[in-house]
Amino acid sequence: MVSPVRDPTSFLRSEYEELVHADLDWKIRILDGASAPWSIVEGKKVLMFCSNNYLGLSNHPALKEAAIEAVRTHGVGSGSVRPIAGTMDLHAELERRLARFKGAEASLVYQTGFAANSGLIPQLVGEGDLVVSDELNHGSIIDGVRLSRAERAVYKHADPADLERVLLEAERHSPSYRRVLIISDGVFSMDGDIAPLDKIAALASGHGAMVYVDDAHGEGVLGEGGRGIVSHFHLSREQVQVEMGTFSKAFGVVGGHVSGSRDLVNFAYNKSRTWLLSGSHPPAVVAACLAAVEVLEREPEHVQRLWERTRQFKKAMAALGFDIGRSETPITPVLVGESSVAKRLSQRLFELGVFALPIIFPMVAKDRARIRTIMNAALTPEDVDFAISAFEKAGKELALL
Ligand SMILES: *Cc1c(COP(=O)(O)O)cnc(C)c1O
Question: Fewer C-beta within 10 Å: the chain N or C terminus?
Answer without folding.
Answer: N
